[in-house]
Amino acid sequence: MIATENGILISDKAKAKVIQLMQDAGIADDATYFLRVGVVGGGCSGLSYKMDFDNEVKPMDQVFEDKGIKIVCDLKSFLYLVNTELEFSDGLNGKGFFFNNPNASRSCGCGESFSV
To answer: Which of 68, 88, 63, 97 is nearest to 78 (CA)?
Structure first.
């Protein structure tokens, strides 16, 4: 089942970069692959984001789709990531993916870790 509200979203720029990275990895034409996002302990604020490509959905995974991109998250991580939007910046102040997380009460300067 794919949830449509209270999910994880992706911006247009992040979508374009994900598609490019999937093409670079040779998995763009394989419909079994998706973007897996999650949260792990660590980082300067206590929790860090993680992202990878995967092709195995686990029993407690939460599955979302936004702008044609399938996004999967484990249930524990989803509690921290509900209504988060994955963004991509290629500006002068930094390049890469970042999470626009409304649940984070504090983020570190690099934007790669947070606390709630």
So the answer is: 63
Contacts of 30 (CB under 8 A, 6+ apart): 55
Q: For residue 77, what are its two tokens?
A: 């991580």
For the segment(s) 9-110, the CATH number from 3.40.50.2300, 2.60.300.12, 3.30.420.10, 2.130.10.10 is 2.60.300.12
Please state, rounded to an integer, the average pLDDT across all residues of the chain.
86
Closest CA to 104 of 86, 81, 75: 81
The pLDDT score that the predictor gives to residue 44 is 65
DSSP string, the chain: --B-SS--EE-HHHHHHHHHHHHHTT-TT-TT-EEEEEEEE-STTSEEEEEEEE----TT-EEEEETTEEEEE-HHHHHHHTT-EEEEEEETTEEEEEEE-TT-SEE-TTSSEEE-
At 7-54, the pLDDT tens digits run 899 999 999 999 999 999 999 999 999 999 999 887 666 788 899 999
